[in-house]
Amino acid sequence: MKNGEILALLSTFRKFITFGKFVVLTAYCLLLRPTAIAAQTADSLFKLLETAPADTHRVTLLTDLAWEINESETEQAEAKIWEAIALAQKLNFKAGEATAWNGLGVVEEIRGNDSVAIARYEKALTLRRDLNDQSGAARALANIGKAYESLVKYQESLTHHRESFTIYESLKDSVRMARALINISGVLSAGGAFQEAFAELNKARLLLENKGDDATTIRTYTQLGNNRFDLDMFSKARGWYEKSLRLRQKLGDPIDIADGLVDVGNALDEMGHPDSSKLAVQHYLQALGIYRAEAYQLGIGRVGNNLGDAYKHLDQFEEALKYLRESEQIQLEIEDEQGLMATYNTINDVLYRQGRIKESLIYLRRCAAIAGKPGNENARLGVFKDFARAYEALGDYAKAYDYQKQYNDLRYKLIDEKRSQNIETQQANTSAQERQLALDRERTNTALREAELARTRTFRNALLGGAVLLVLLVALLFNRNRLRARANRLLTAKNETIERERQRADSLLQNILPEKTAEELKTNGTVKPVHYESVTVLFSDFKNFTTIAETMSPEALVRELDEYFRAFDAIVVRHGLEKIKTIGDAYMCAGGLPEPNNTHALDTVRAAMEMQQTIRALAGKKAAAGQPFFEMRIGINTGPVVAGVVGSHKFAYDIWGDTVNVAARLEHGGEPGKINVSETTWEKVREEFNCTFRGKLPAKNKGEIAMYFVEASS
After folding, report:
1. Is residue 495 domain-shared with residue 535, that is, in the same domain?
2. In 10 A of CB 382, how many CB atoms?
3. Structural domain count, the chain
4. 120: which residues sit within 8 A by CB, 6+ positions away?
């Protein structure tokens, strides 16, 4: 069974949960690694506590010990933390008490009591704020955000993560700013807002450059790969995973390296080519060797399932079953239900492909027993589909129909839930940003009020001093008047400077945002999201950009992109379109907003043709000069979007919706030098342009989308 259909419904779940491959979840894996070192540390702490006096050092020892044993001996860990809290309160050791409350929150998260954990973290947050410990407060906010994410309360989660980011920004702590952005991205991905999540991760990546924090950079590269993987952009996912793997190899942790090999193998196997599946097998086998050397049972069991899946794609069924049987045995021993569910399903699929239908049903039923538990609805969806397939092959059409009906009922239910969740996440993200903007505005107003009070006090003191001088030194009246005149001239000059800066700020704002949107932002301080029923979205990117970029200096690369994008900006203005943004080598614009019109599809296609002409002209010049040049893919789609302003102090006008995602997929599925349009766009431009039908593109939640190359005017 393929994962594409399930991912289309629930792409926020990693593939190994929805009957796919073992994708590394770093925090989870770390918890299950061999704990010999942790056990030794705990023993040492127990011995130190035997003789430690009742002072602040003992508070620290108690919380450290609880941290070492909170996974294996949760009850004892909690008892040690309560002892630490009581002693810290007796000593008025607020920093130690805050650390202990944080540890208590971790214990409750381990137990799955996220609501209780939030209350513990909030205690820690209050103490950190009392101590004016900004960094500690930011950490507490991040913990609260993660707990709210576990409760699927994305608005609350985003609010806390963004506040954490703002604190780190004020501290100019680039690495922790990046970590906060990674947390924000995780919440957005969980809610299905993949484009926004990708943008946050890119900000994190730029913040981490040249900072030397390889561990956080690995996490960023891996999540960038996961983001592209979730959108079925497996080639790009592979690129990010390979960057992560190179850093893992540099650090030298064996299990981290194996995890990176698994990620790359997953992307390779999903590309759908025998050669890439063979490469995937090589990566999996290398990872398996490392896991065995490290006696890491969880990794051995999960990667065994991946090997079975890859060998299945190569039609090497017996080899697949060999690794799957081993994986099943290990997962039974360590009680890894999620891994076992995936393995049972893969065995079922291998046996089905061999024509051993009745045997496949045995494993499908085992899989169904786990999938029937709460929280496994997406897995249950796949089980229904496989049951329908098996009973149809056996000729039992009544059962096949019954399971197909269950599949359809659950599928539509999950689609509705997914759509609602996506909308809620978008709204939560916008609300969190609006609240942050309001907070920043209030801080600015407070600073202005304080400045005004200071100016008033200064002026008052000056008047008092002048009155005294007037009484004492009447003869100096003329001189005082002269000084006042000079001060007035200076004040007038300053007011003129302020007015010029205000006009300059207005001009810059209108250059960043559409004029109507800029006016709304200045008037109200916020911009309400607007739904547009029909706009046309254009995505473009350059072929082999990464390869060419590696041959150029950073300065030359920026100059090159600036030359192309300046040309595109002029084309967009000529055709009445709105530039949305650039991401790396990708350029995005749209027609039909912020002022709706009926010609946006024609305007956008004309602009696309002029862009390709510009690219070809520049390519000819650069080729003649022996310089590298780019070729470009363009994808265009027409449909509804939501538009609005995001950001708290670097405003960005952006658009969201399936229309945007499909345009990006059309660009990815296009060819260099071509303009690839959807059927909805073709319907609006076919009277003016000759178009060639080129097949259908599978798209999540959309089925298959017909594609056309625009050739020329009719």
Report:
1. no
2. 25
3. 2
4. 101, 102, 104, 105, 108
92: tokens are: 């008025």
8 A C-beta contact, residue 292 and residue 300: yes
Query: Residue 621: CB partners within 8 Å, gap ≥ 6?
Result: none
- Residue by residue, DSSP assigns 563-626 as HHHHHHHHHHHHTT-EEEEEETTEEEEEES-SS--S-HHHHHHHHHHHHHHHHHHHHHHHHHTT
Amino acid 526: pLDDT: 61
User: Does 666 lie in the same domain as 616?
Assistant: yes
Distance of CA 98 to the CA centre of its chain: 30
CA 383 to chain centre: 29
Which of 639, 630, 632 is CA-nearest to residue 657?
Answer: 639
CATH number at residue 569: 3.30.70.1230
* Statement to judge: residues 631 and 562 lie in one domain: yes
Per-residue pLDDT tens digits for 585-608: 899 999 998 899 999 999 999 999
600 lies in some domain:
yes
> What span, in angstroms and rounded, lies between the C-alpha atoms of 457 and 43?
63
**Does 552 share its domain with 695?**
yes
462 and 533 in a single domain? The answer is no
Residue 70 has phi, psi (to 5 degrees) of -65, -25
Residue 249 forms part of a structural domain: no
Whole-angstrom distance, CA of residue 154 vs CA of residue 144: 12
Domain hosting 476: range is: 430-499
Q: What's the pTM value of the predicted model, to 2 decimals?
A: 0.56
- Please indicate, yes or no, whether residues 547 and 494 belong to a single structural domain of this protein: no
Q: What is the pLDDT of residue 35?
A: 46
- 202-248: per-residue pLDDT in tens? 999 999 988 889 999 999 999 999 999 988 899 999 999 999 999 99
- Beta bridge pairs of residue 708: 677, 693
Q: What does the pLDDT read at residue 438?
A: 57
* Together in a domain, 590 and 697: yes
| Selection from 217, 199, 196 nearest residue 208 by Cα | 217
Cα–Cα distance between 116 and 99 in angstroms, integer?
A: 16
**Which residues touch 497 (CB under 8 Å, ≥6 apart)?**
none
- Residue range 624-666, pLDDT digits in tens: 888 888 899 999 999 999 988 766 555 678 888 889 989 989 9
Q: Are residues 444 and 533 in the same domain?
A: no
